[in-house]
Amino acid sequence: MSHYNFIIERSTIVSDFSSQVKGRIFLITGPSTGSVGAEIALTLSRGYPSTTLLLGRSLPKIQPVIETIDTISPSTVVKFVPLLLTSLASIALPLKTILNDTFIPHIDILIYNAGIMACPYERSEDGLESQWQMNSLSYFLLTNLLLPRRTNNKRLKPHAQSKTTNIIFSVELNRRLAKRGVEGFALHPGAIDTGLARHFALEMLGEKFE
């Protein structure tokens, strides 16, 4: 029987999976002192990761965590990156720091810990409900900004993805709003000679077979 249960020590897990921690690059959000994110960062440091990126709002609240990691694993590079999940516009700028850092060739593991819960109703500066934005939408944006730019030289694939999203959105609208008499449709107009296809070239069809 597996020895993993509700009372297992976190250090045991890191020890058992040390090969998946040592030398890896981790990104952790919400690592303020006393938080779950802080404990994750401290526990992982016992497995000697190569780099730990700590993303949060306040350096003073995270500095004690950084200092403790330095004590546990002096070889681990620890970097603080300011991040405000309640503002979509503020997410892109700090991530440029990561993407432009030559000492961070990639990120092995993302650990999204920062979040809020059951707080009074409030809208963010983006006009969105604060819990939904901070706990979900901001992480969707953050992840996409960190992903390798695999489609820079593609044209049809991004278009196909955007249209697939339209279809899924229409299906979900029907599921959620059918009782209110709301219907959603995703329609294909067929091959029509308009300016929409002005960027299309026959050689782009080869993308489909790559």
UniProtKB/TrEMBL annotation:
The keyword Ion transport does not apply. Keywords: Oxidoreductase. InterPro entries: NAD(P)-bd_dom_sf, SDR_fam. It holds the Pfam family adh_short. One of its GO terms (molecular function) is oxidoreductase activity. Belongs to the short-chain dehydrogenases/reductases (SDR) family. This is NAD(P)-binding protein. It comes from Hyaloscypha bicolor E.
